[in-house]
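Design review, sub-item: ligand-bound model
Attendees: FS, YL, KQ
YL presented the inputs for the zinc ion complex:
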Amino acid sequence: MKAKLTVYIPPHLPPVDIPEFDVTWRTAVLDLSRFLDRSRGQCRADVAVEALAAGISTPTVYVLDCDGYYPGFNFLFGLAQPALRTAVVFTARLRGPLFAERLAKEITHEAGHLYGLSHCSNPKCVMYFSNTLLDTDRKSVYFCDKCRRKLLARYLNP
Ligand SMILES: [Zn+2]
Ligand SMILES: [Zn+2]
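KQ shared the predicted structure:
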């Protein structure tokens, strides 16, 4: 049994393997200039989530091909607003040979938040908080048993 998730990606990025969810992939051409802070060259995460949440009723992650930030943070890998059922993941800092794996981990992590999960102290669990790319590379694309049980409980009893 896997929880359902919708992921929007830009057309030039291929879907990645997300073993923890039953994913519906959709492509979206988004005008990122709406979220862009020109002086920083970064997209503002909360503004993007709120704008993209319009009309969303089931857990949905948008992959934004840019770098993201939030006031008080130099950058963010992603941001989820569980109340809005919507999250964003930023690609800019995931580049390299491990790109597909990293993107899958960040999408899974934000989707976990959309299903009510908080951060997990297990460094292998995908809900472990990534401060740096090293944290992302060290953790797996999977939930630990505890997080997976919690997520499925939330999926079955929203
Ligand atoms: Zn998180
Ligand atoms: Zn966990």
